[in-house]
Structure to design on (322 residues):
């Protein structure tokens, strides 16, 4: 199939967003949004770097790639609306596999009423998938890492370390369907984040590289110290049972769970819990924000002992530079 035939084969027949004026089929897409701020982000996945056919079906590659982008929008408190897909295709991928990749994206897009509005497809030596997403947020209501304040509650959604456990299941003889699904089909916390719109101040960060990294990003951006209690950090019983020697490390540094870590004032913490109930999202307090009297940092308390939690999750540039 040539490029133009392929584009026609994945072109949407209908659109969900009323603000869309022109979607796929022209040189560029057009949408109009006069009343809200526009949030956009891009993420790229490269075969044998970020995913492998050994552990991911094409459907799951597409699903997880879009989920990663939606998680970034969730961290900004944004409602997703559109996405663009740029694809570098190798000879190793069949037409049917590419359609499955797009079907994975489409499945998740339908859940959130997001429209595919364009992209690009070229040939290359290995498959690269780059997705750009656009979302809306009420004016001046985007959520930033830089707004954590001393006295805030630190919280996390879901359970952490599952995706790393799921990957281990796929690479070994051990197997757990829940963990595998958490690796292949993560659940971005979009609805939960949107439910926080009424809060006057909330700091959010997407857990893509493990909370060791994400907590430090909040500390640095806000010039504070995050004081976390390892006993309060949520993990699944499946992870602890299957990997008793690794679950604690993975819940801190496993990455790719696409949960949210955040901070909020004591006064508005009950509203976060209510948002969790409304969206069927588990939310747990995992620590406190305290004043930084020197260098911003993250402290971890365990069994009465306190240590420094450094950035120890997956860091792309460090990994690629070896």
């Amino acid at each position: 199939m040539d490029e133009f035939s392929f584009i026609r084969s994945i072109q949407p027949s209908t659109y969900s967003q009323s603000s869309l004026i022109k979607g796929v089929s022209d040189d560029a897409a057009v949408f109009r949004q006069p009343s809200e701020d526009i949030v956009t982000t891009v993420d790229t996945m490269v075969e044998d770097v970020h995913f492998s056919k050994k552990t991911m079906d094409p459907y799951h590659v597409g699903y997880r790639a879009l989920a990663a982008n939606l998680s970034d929008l969730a961290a900004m408190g944004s409602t997703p609306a559109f996405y663009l897909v740029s694809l570098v295709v190798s000879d190793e991928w069949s037409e049917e596999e590419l359609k499955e990749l797009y079907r994975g994206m489409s499945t998740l897009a339908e859940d959130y009423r997001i429209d595919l509005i364009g992209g690009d497809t070229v040939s290359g030596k290995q498959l690269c998938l780059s997705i750009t997403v656009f979302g809306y947020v009420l004016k001046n209501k985007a959520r930033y890492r830089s707004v954590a304040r001393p006295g805030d509650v630190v919280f996390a959604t879901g359970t952490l370390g599952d995706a790393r456990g799921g990957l281990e299941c796929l690479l070994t003889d051990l197997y757990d369907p829940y963990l595998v699904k958490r690796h292949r089909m993560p659940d971005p916390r979009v609805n939960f984040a949107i439910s926080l719109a009424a809060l006057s101040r909330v700091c959010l960060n997407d857990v893509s590289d493990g909370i060791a990294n994400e907590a430090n990003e909040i500390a640095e951006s806000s010039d504070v110290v995050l004081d976390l209690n390892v006993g309060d950090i949520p993990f699944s019983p499946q992870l602890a049972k299957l990997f008793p020697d690794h679950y604690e490390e993975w819940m801190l540094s496993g990455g790719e769970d696409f949960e949210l870590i955040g901070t909020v004032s004591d006064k508005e913490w009950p509203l976060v819990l209510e948002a969790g109930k409304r969206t069927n999202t588990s939310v747990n307090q995992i620590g406190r924000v305290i004043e930084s009297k020197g260098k911003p940092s993250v402290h971890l308390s365990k069994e009465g002992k306190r240590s420094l939690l450094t950035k120890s999750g997956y860091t792309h540039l460090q990994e690629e530079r070896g």
Summary: The domain at 145-321 is CATH 3.90.650.10 (Phosphoribosyl-aminoimidazole Synthetase; Chain A, domain 2). Confidence is low (pLDDT under 50) at residues 318-322.
